[in-house]
Amino acid sequence: MARHDESDPATWWDRYGHRLHGEPAAPVAGPDERTGETVGEHDRTVEPEALRAPRADYPQRSGAEAGAWFTDPKGIPTVDGVPERPGLRAPGPTGPFDPDALLRSRGPVPDSGWRRILHAATLGRVDPGPSPAQIAAQDRLRRVRSHLAGTHRVAVTSLKGGVGKTTVTACLGLALADHRGDRILALDANPDAGTLADRLTGVADHTVRDLLDDLAAVDSWTAVSRYTSLAGRLQVLASEQDPAAGEAFTRDEYLRIDGALARFFSVMLTDSGTGMVHSAMAGTLDVADSLVVVGAPTVDGAGRASKTLDWLVAHGHERLVEEAVVVLVGRGSRELDSGALREHFARRCRAVVEIPHDPHLATGGRIDPARLRPATRDAFLELAAGVAEAFPARVRG
User: Fold this and answer.
1) Within 10 Å of residue 12's Cβ, how many Cβ atoms?
2) What span, in angstroms and rounded, lies between the C-alpha atoms of 281 and 293?
3) Contact 358/376 with Cβ under 8 angstroms?
4) Which residue of 48, 83, 86, 131 has the fewest C-beta atoms within 10 A of its own C-beta?
């Protein structure tokens, strides 16, 4: 195929630019386009006026300006100094770029029941919205994930043994660790061979006594993790398993442990053991930021929980009592007015949470969160939300 070279733009403009605007270019000497014969500059055939393209009403330009009139607004009709062109808007102030404004709003998808079935069957065209239970669950999780600045210490205590204090500490720790991104520690400070590690991990190779003996060498997270075991995302520090040596865990030693661990954990839960007068309990209350008092929905269990609050007030811990969360564990009697019981503690404390009877917890063995009843899991999440509501958003001075 023969190659046809494009003509020089300057020559093209000199020859045909008059068809766009302006006067025709002067003819130059050279071969005639139709006959091929050489002619002079006055012998070239001039195209009749009638065959020429209409001239534009824009001012003629020459040289470098010749090809700029297409975009040059000079000579174009304007409105308030702005070129009047189709689709052209006058510039104005614009707000910041908002990616969310570009997306079609989508609410939460129903997660259960007829709402989910209807939403799925219509491919989302019919959206009944979340149920009240789903909204409550989302709000509960939002409270569990409350922002926390610094380290928050929670003391779990009771005057009466056998009401589920260790169970509450374990399940509260699991709920916080599973739904928060920070480090959570459950510390067994029971001086009488506590069972917190047994209920959570079954591992008690290293105890709080071992940590005390090596405290000078604990200067990193790796060093701390040698003395803890792991239940899910919850770190567990076992108590001394020798009852005779347990009495050596004094107030000062607890404070040393607390000072070392507070550098590495955001939330520290202390299973303080039965009673309020042992030395480690004094250290626990000295540094506690919030309090969980465990009782039972019985006359005896509720009475012990109320006496625990009385003892705390009598020993200068009014602030802890006002911000405390009371937990009632187990199945209540029909002969007991549960509403009056809740009202009694609600007048004295910040919140009251009831944990229903659960066959898995009643065995006293290793706790498996997957085997808890849904109502039990929701109750412990509510307890975690109640505790997290007291988390400070700023570091206290």
Assistant:
1) 11
2) 13
3) yes
4) 86
Query: What average pLDDT is seen over the chain?
Result: 80
Only one residue has tokens 């465990």, namely: 294
Pairing of strands 82-83, 78-79: antiparallel
> Do you know the residue count of the chain?
397
Number of helices (H), then strands (E), in the chain: 15, 12
81 CB-near residues (< 8 Å, 6+ apart): none
pTM of the predicted model as reported, rounded to 2 decimal places: 0.71
In this structure, what token pair is assigned to residue 349?
């404390």
Provide the token pair at 50: 């009638």
Distance separating alpha carbons of residues 224 and 196, to the nearest angstrom: 18
**CA 246, 249, 251, 257 torsion: positive or negative?**
negative
Name the amino acid, one letter, at 305: A
The string of pLDDT tens digits covering residues 46-86 is: 555 545 555 545 455 554 444 444 444 555 555 555 555 55
Pair 110, 128: CB distance under 8 Å: yes
E strand residue ranges, 278-350: 290-295, 325-329
Burial (Cβ within 10 Å: 0-12, 13-18, ≥19) of residue 259: exposed
Angle between the 338-346 and 299-314 helix axes, to the nearest 10 degrees?
Answer: 10
For the segment 359-378, what is each residue's pLDDT rounded down to a tens digit? 999 998 999 999 999 999 99
- Cα separation of 61 and 22, whole Å? 8
Q: Which residues pair with 31 in a beta bridge?
A: 38
- Where are the strands (E) in the chain, listed by range? 30-31, 38-39, 78-79, 82-83, 152-158, 184-188, 229-231, 234-237, 267-274, 290-295, 325-329, 351-355
